[in-house]
Design goal:
single chain, alpha+beta, six-stranded mixed beta sheet, two-stranded antiparallel sheet, 10 strands
């Protein structure tokens, strides 16, 4: 692949951004967000929590309603909060529940049934928003606010006195040089990745190995839905597509049903991390690409996912795994297959065309099915591009420039986000109450 000199400031921006996009998480990142807030509150109180009000955005509630929690199972948001109050490990951030013991898990389930936690769904807040107001038996009150980033504790007060405040988010290191997302072109991303050295991307190995362990766990614990979803696919080294689908379905399913292992998240989502990272490793091992090519492809997948997520929103009415992460990973696979920039542009457009209507209805078991179906569509998109066929220019949402298509989808997302998500959350809440 050809080299291209990129503005040094922009190259540094991409290096910093890539490091910021990946982080370890234990369970769904929305689980970590709620547990982190509750854990921090409990650490500042003088005794056990006896009452609490948990205010969460509709997006946080949506993703915590049915997802499996490691060592807790599929328990819902109240048990997640109760576990956070018990564990008191806020220093671990999104890994806050990683050290929970069986005894603590049992106690969290018991406590969540005592009706001392009230859940208030805030439909018009920032998508990443969790505020807990907790009281102990000595009548001390602690309030913890997390906003904009899942692990960004913005403020802690104890008895109405400020004890901690954070004006910086985790992403601050990225802005050594500032670029608006609209200023970043596909050419920039492609050549930024192309110019990476092994030292720039070798840190991605840790995430790949972490996510590979989740994949292996899923392979060993296939049950019910997983077997059905993977019907017709076999884990083998002769068909990279079958192996890739098997790996993705088993890993996503394992995570959704409470796999007790951390994942390396991408763009604040564990499912995104599995979806963008594992396919690159699978293709690399099956098709014998170089490690550097595989790591660069992983970087490209993460950065394109970032571009899409910055347009549609960190949490939105869209399914980010389908619209963003699958689109990113297909582009990464294309990079490993020596796609030109035009081919990556065209395959990205095809992915966006097929996924633009995919909505998020919460983190749960069926996420594996949606991601699998999107990847199958992505394979078809690769076949089309490799046959030298592209979508007609400027039809519907699709622009000749795939990054302009992303912008159009972002406009649509912002237009439908609140109303659509509110309807979805109302349906989820109704179903939860009917259980």
């Amino acid at each position: 692949m050809e080299q291209h000199k990129l503005e040094q400031k922009k190259q540094i921006f991409f290096k910093n951004l890539l490091k910021d996009l990946v982080s370890p998480a234990y369970g769904c990142t929305e689980i970590g967000c709620v547990a982190l807030a509750c854990s921090a509150a409990a650490e500042h109180l003088k005794g056990p929590v006896v009452s609490a009000k948990l205010h969460v955005s509709s997006y946080i509630y949506r993703n915590d309603a049915n997802v499996g929690v490691p060592k807790l199972g599929q328990v819902g948001i109240k048990t997640i909060a109760a576990a956070g109050f018990i564990v008191k490990q806020s220093k671990k951030k999104l890994l806050v529940l990683s050290s929970i013991t069986d005894a603590q898990a049992k106690l969290a389930k018991q406590n969540s049934k005592q009706n001392f936690i009230d859940i208030i769904i805030e439909k018009h807040r920032n998508p990443v928003y969790a505020k807990v107001i907790a009281k102990d038996k000595f009548n001390n009150t602690c309030e913890v606010l997390i906003e904009r980033k899942h692990d960004n504790i913005k403020r802690i007060t104890l008895n109405n006195k400020l004890v901690a405040v954070n004006t910086k988010t985790k992403a601050s290191n990225v802005h050594t040089y500032k670029y608006n997302v609209d200023d970043i072109s596909l050419n920039d991303v492609y050549y930024g990745v192309q110019n990476f050295t092994i030292n720039d991307v070798k840190f991605l190995r840790d995430g790949l190995m972490m996510n590979k362990k989740v994949m292996n766990y899923g392979e060993k614990h296939r049950e019910g839905f997983t077997k059905v979803a993977m019907a017709g696919y076999s884990f083998n080294e002769t068909n990279w597509k079958n192996q890739l689908l098997t790996s993705i379905v088993s890993s996503i399913t394992a995570r959704m049903v409470s796999c007790p292992l951390p994942v390396m998240a991408s763009n604040d989502s564990g499912d995104h991390g599995l979806t963008v990272n594992l396919p690159q490793w699978i293709y690399h091992t099956c098709c014998k690409t170089s490690e550097l090519t595989m790591l660069k492809a992983t970087a490209l997948a993460n950065l394109i996912t970032w571009k899409i997520k910055k347009n549609i929103g960190s949490l939105s009415a869209y399914c980010g795994s389908v619209v963003a992460a699958v689109s990113g990973t297909i582009c990464g696979l294309g990079y490993q297959r020596n796609y030109s920039i035009k081919q990556i542009n065209d395959v990205l457009n095809l992915c966006l065309c097929s996924s633009a209507g995919s909505l998020c209805d919460g983190a749960k078991l069926s996420c594996a099915w949606k991601i699998e179906a999107a990847i199958v569509a992505g394979f078809a998109a690769m076949d089309v591009v490799e046959s030298k066929i592209a979508l007609p220019d400027n039809e519907g949402l699709v622009n000749r420039d795939a990054f302009e298509t992303i912008k159009s989808i972002g406009i649509l997302s912002r237009g439908i986000m609140n109303d659509t998500n509110s309807i979805v959350v109302d349906i989820i809440d109704k179903n939860e109450r009917a259980k």
